[in-house]
Amino acid sequence: MMYVKWIVMIPPILSLYFSARILMNNLRYDEAALGMLFSNMDETAILISVFAVSMIIFSATRVMDLIDLFWPIPGNDEIIAAMIWLIDIVLVYIFYRVATVTVPAERNI
């Protein structure tokens, strides 16, 4: 039963790791990272759309949290925590895709 507590930590840790990889790719490859991200417009458009939807849901959880401050709703905290955890899984996917797209492939000359 103790392992279940650690499994819940996997998506936030992966989200932190992949977002740090994106930052390192942008610092290391500068314009090349942005060029590679926007050269594949279909995938980038899908990633931005999924990111926007996840941020809308995340904002909804913040509103639910504010409502809970003034009018406590039973079980609201658990719903918010589950929604944020699911959003984190989506963000892991988005950050992974962006991190893999923004790295130039090794070229054999």
TrEMBL record:
* Protein keywords: Membrane, Transmembrane, Transmembrane helix
Q: Which residues cross the membrane?
A: 45-67, 79-99
Q: Which organism is it from?
A: Methanothermobacter thermautotrophicus (strain ATCC 29096 / DSM 1053 / JCM 10044 / NBRC 100330 / Delta H) (Methanobacterium thermoautotrophicum)
Return the protein name.
Answer: Uncharacterized protein
Taxonomy of origin reads: Archaea, Methanobacteriati, Methanobacteriota, Methanomada group, Methanobacteria
